[in-house]
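To: structure subgroup
Subject: Chain for Friday's discussion

All,

I'm putting the inputs and outputs inline so they're searchable in the archive.
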Amino acid sequence: MRGEVIGVWSETWREIWSKLAKHPDAPGDLFCELYRELVGAFETPPDVTALADFVDQPERARAAFRKTKATVFCGEFALVEFMERAHNTVVDLGGDPLANRYFLLAEAFLNKYSLRYDLRRPFSLNPTLPGVFARLIRDLKDATARDADLHPLMVEFEDAIRDLRADRSAGRIKTCIQKQVNLLEAIGQRCPGVNANTNTLGRMCDEVGTWPHNKVKEAMKDIYKFASDYPGIRHGGNAQNRLREIEMRDLVGISVLLAGFSPYLTDLINSETIYRGT
């Protein structure tokens, strides 16, 4: 599950549009107007003549709408914009009763498929924090998959996380943190502004030039220092500085923090698209 509408677009016909058309206030030309809006999300819209043939004939418009595949859309953001525009169309065609039905159907659809949006009235699809974080991780995976050197490091990190299923020992948790730091160091080496000879995450933090405030940079550097100083993560470390043994709360907390710093360390991902969708 990608958490995006475009990934489950084929299910919207059964869950939203066919049910909406059965509402007593739905007009016969409902799909004529909806299809007119839908083509605005196409990567290659039909020409004016072809579009006129559809929107002037309700049955053809309905069939064309139903047969539309996710592959024709520009992307997730274009599809979300269509769904928001569709609300205005529904209001014009059937008033508040039909618009409320559309809202409730869309809301149920988002919940059923655990999509990355919170639906607010009158009809606004707003990215949620879990959705943004999931997209960040997915885009990092996609970016590293295209790099022959980064890909193995991402695989090693993911394998270390999976290995915890059988063994949640402190040693396995330390390995997870170590693999993630290794991955971030390799990603950071490719960031514009970082010297080709720089090979430690701490020094990269001083060179990337992306921080909004020195305290944010220092926070990243301090986490890196923790990974270097805590015995058994990156080095032998300093046992006198250890307050307790590593446990699962550290895996969750440190992994989330390190992932959250990744947009500062690379230009391989786009924060705007992470928030709103492609």
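Points worth raising on Friday:
The mean pLDDT is 95.
The chain has twelve helices and two strands.

D.
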